[in-house]
Design goal:
- This protein has 12 helices and 13 strands.
- By secondary structure, it is of the alpha/beta class.
- The longest helix is centred in the C-terminal third of the chain and has 26 residues.
- The structure holds glutamic acid.
Length: 438
């Protein structure tokens, strides 16, 4: 797993140069995002004059989150909420709890949300939040106090019409219930629409939990059709076996594919004839990791990149596929369930080797698409059936993917650049229509 660098803090900004913390610092996540933006600028036509807006987050808040630990001492955690762009609507994006979270990472994740939300044409800008903490070291009570204090601290910039958080790495429905309750207590009125990914009994949506994995499968199946790859006989390798990788693996297995290798934070398992995915999911539910699953062979973690497969699904953290391992990847297609798993150098290597990369900004957009449905349902207090939700999700993902495929074909660019062309054009068109205030 990557170790991201510590954030650089702002110098005094000069009139034209980007302040240092916004510049491409070696290969941090924000630097990677900036390189991706630079690749799209030549395709933006006259809107390119607004492109600088993509290179600066609209608003970034750093908060101190002090809590009482169970042992009576006080601990301080650093929290962030970044609103990258709100030209198309309120900020939208998850909150992650992870020991490697940095400002640079949250800025990049918020920017990828802007592009993703525009690519699937949901009426949101992009935002992201996080706390630099290893949540596995906290008791349930400590986790609740930290979540509530963080929510209260970012309460000045979130709200159902301002910025709507959701789950991400190491956060879940319970986290969202605490966030919704804390915000509602501070407002003096129950406000279900302030977060999405909530439990069903608190205004959550059917199908939200599975939505990201379902979207990964949907675009994967569409792309497979385009390149003549038969899902029913495909070999799949998955990194990350949580809400995204676990569900995607299950759906590929249900479609007949063989899930031959799975890696998570605890280890790597492999089975040539195909893993029993439901059995592996229940092993992870009991033990917390794929390690020790007896119906498979254990692999050294680094050997994961050499596994013979047709489809590779990175569904964990950023910067997993790099110049150091991209040439080893055997797959014909990489589907980015995670945000930012492939560096620009690795993108170039994979393109040269004719490996198709379905980028995060479309491949994992199913989650936020159903978040949009949840937000709409909360506003109207009218809840849809699961069939309705899945049908609408599938339609949006297929149509968005088809449009992106067309742009990639027309301009002879990668699917990542094509998705950025579609997303950034929509963002900057809204920017231009709204104009500058004052
Ligand atoms: N954290 C998810 C993502 O990266 C979902 C965000 C949301 O639903 O707002 O897309």
């Amino acid at each position: 797993m990557p170790h991201t660098s510590a954030p650089n803090f702002p110098d005094s900004p000069t009139a034209h140069a980007l302040p240092s913390y916004l510049q491409a610092d070696h290969l941090g996540p924000w630097g990677i995002y900036l390189q991706q933006v630079d690749r799209v600028i030549p395709y933006l036509g006259p809107l390119a004059r607004w492109a600088e807006t993509l290179k600066r987050p609209k608003r970034a808040l750093i908060v101190d989150v002090p809590i009482h630990l169970d042992n009576g001492t006080v601990a301080h955690f650093e929290g962030y909420r970044v609103q990258h762009n709100t030209s198309r609507g309120p900020g939208k994006g998850g909150v992650r709890f992870h020991q490697d979270v940095t400002l640079s990472e949250v800025m990049a994740l918020s920017a990828w949300m802007s592009v993703k939300n525009a690519a699937v044409n949901v009426p949101f800008g992009g935002a992201k939040g996080g706390i630099r903490v290893n949540p596995k070291t906290l008791s349930l009570g400590e986790l609740e106090r930290m979540t509530r204090r963080y929510t209260s601290e970012i309460g000045i910039i979130i709200g159902p019409n301002k910025d709507i958080p959701a789950p991400d790495v190491n956060t879940n429905e319970q986290t969202m219930a605490w966030m919704m309750d804390t915000y509602s207590m501070n407002e003096g009125a129950t406000s279900t629409g302030v977060v999405t990914g909530k439990p069903l009994d608190l205004g959550g949506s059917l199908g939200r939990r599975e939505a990201t994995g379902r979207g990964v499968f949907t675009v994967g199946a569409e792309a497979a059709r385009h390149i003549g790859l038969d899902i029913a006989s495909a070999r799949v390798a998955v990194q990350g076996f949580g809400n995204v990788g676990g569900i995607a693996a299950k759906m590929f297995a249900q479609a007949g594919a063989k899930v031959v290798a799975v890696q998570d934070h605890g280890g790597t398992v492999m089975k040539e004839s195909g893993l029993d995915v439901p059995a592996l999911l229940s092993h992870v539910a009991h033990t917390g990791s794929v390690a020790g699953f007896t119906e498979a062979q254990a692999l050294p973690d680094d050997a994961f990149w050499d596994v013979r497969c047709d489809i590779l699904i990175p569904a964990a953290l950023e910067q997993q596929i790099t110049a150091a391992n991209a040439h080893r990847i055997q797959a014909r297609m990489v589907i980015e369930g995670a945000n930012g798993p492939t560096t620009p150098e690795a993108d170039d290597i994979l393109q040269a080797r004719n490996v198709l990369v379905l980028p995060d900004v479309i491949a994992n957009a199913g989650g936020v698409t159903v978040s949009y449905f949840e937000w709409v349902q909360d506003f109207s207090s009218f809840f849809w059936s699961e069939d309705d939700i899945n049908a609408r999700l599938t339609r949006i993902m297929k149509e968005a993917f088809a449009a992106i495929w067309q742009v990639a074909t027309d301009h002879q660019v990668t699917l990542r650049t094509a998705t950025f062309i579609v997303g950034c054009t929509r963002i900057l068109h809204s920017r231009e229509l709204r104009g500058l205030y004052p």
